[in-house]
Design a protein that fits this description.
The chain has one helix at residues 98-103, and strands spanning 7-13, 22-28, 34-41, 47-50, 56-63, 70-77, 82-86, 90-95, 106-110, 126-127, 134-140, 145-149. By secondary structure, the protein is mainly beta.
């Protein structure tokens, strides 16, 4: 890799330390605009490359199948390899009642009231429900969160 022409990423399981073979990566530029989301194929050591990055500062979200996403802010390119450990996550099933179904929009917030990143793609914190009135969030890391339904009283 040419210096300043991309970023090396190294992804491992956070419990067992084994390298992962793929990861979903979302890149946001310095303004917070999503530049790209892509699956990275990783080698046997868990190494891969986000080749399209130009020199600058980015926010990078990395996730894996059944792993909780991690967000890395102020990642400089060129820079050292981004070391990522992902923790297997649990799941949360939400069932909406009639009032919540009428509102349609729900967000998962972290303990500070910010949208919680629970996947590497899509709007942060936004939960998409099915027409049947439920949603399942996979790969959710341990921690405190709050569910906010637009237009509903707390």
């Amino acid at each position: 890799m040419t210096r300043g022409d991309g970023l090396e990423v190294r992804v491992r399981d956070g419990i067992h330390g084994i390298p992962l073979r793929s990861a979903l990566v979302r890149v946001k530029d310095g303004r917070g605009d999503v530049g790209s989301s892509t699956w990275l194929t990783l080698d046997g050591d868990g190494k891969g490359e986000i080749a399209f990055l130009r020199p600058g500062t980015y926010t990078i979200v990395v996730a894996g199948s059944r792993y909780a996403p991690r967000t890395f802010e102020n990642v400089g390119v060129p820079g050292p390899p981004l070391q990522v450990t992902l923790t297997p996550g649990g799941s949360l099933e939400l069932t909406y009642g009639p009032a919540a179904l009428a509102k349609g929009l729900a967000k998962l917030l972290d303990a500070l009231g910010r949208p919680h990143v629970f996947r590497a793609y899509g709007p942060e914190g936004r939960i998409t429900r099915t027409a049947a009135g439920y949603a399942t969030i996979e790969g959710l890391a341990p921690g405190s969160r709050r569910l906010s339904v637009e237009g509903m009283e707390p």
